Amino acid sequence: MTTWKELTGLAPRIAAVFARRHAATGKLCLLATIRADGFPRISPMEPVIFEDQLWIMGMPDTAKFRDLARDPRFCLHTATVDTHLADGDAKLWGVVTDVRDEAVHARFAQALFEESGMDLRGQLPFDHLYAADLTSASSIALHGGQLEITVWKRGEPERVVVKR
User: Fold this and answer.
1) Fewer Cβ neighbours under 10 Å: the N or C end of the chain?
2) Which domains are seen in the chain, by residue range?
3) Burial class (CB in 10 A: 0-12, 13-18, 19+), 74
């Protein structure tokens, strides 16, 4: 399993772009899942980094969480608001694991309350609290008028492709 903390060491350029865009949009990202009919589904969501792990959670009994329960593969894309990508953007691919540990749920709810004021502490355990196992990632950033595409795949070093 590749955690968020591990990704920051293995692919620091991508992790930095993801973290910057994640913070700049109030944590808003787009989650791609696979529907039962095999077509992709795109859903807005706010992933959380907690205890060095990327977590995907949200309102229970939604289509995106039914998708993940059936097929754990996902892609998470930072919300892009600038068509020129001046601030860059990033994508993370992986699979989720539904963590059922009530102690983790309680710590997560407490941290969420302390950070945002959202109080889910009395709603434990959650229907789903998905830990992301990251398998690949990419980012795009502009540097000196050049487009730099950074790519990471598990088992390989982060690499940069420059487009002029």
Assistant:
1) C
2) 4-137 (2.30.110.10)
3) buried
C-beta of residue 160 within 8 angstroms of C-beta of residue 19: no
Look up residue 79 and give its two tokens: 């919300």
d(CA 49, CA 148): 25
Strands (E), the chain: 29-34, 40-45, 48-50, 53-56, 73-78, 89-98, 130-143, 146-153, 159-163
Alpha-carbon distance of 96 to 144, in angstroms, equals 37
The pLDDT of residue 45: 94
Length of the chain: 164
| Structure-block tokens of residue 82 | 């600038």
pTM for this prediction: 0.93
Reply yes or no on whether the pLDDT at 32 is more than 80: yes
Q: How many other C-beta atoms are found inside a 10 Å radius of the C-beta of residue 93?
A: 19
Q: Assign 26 to helix, strand or coil.
A: coil
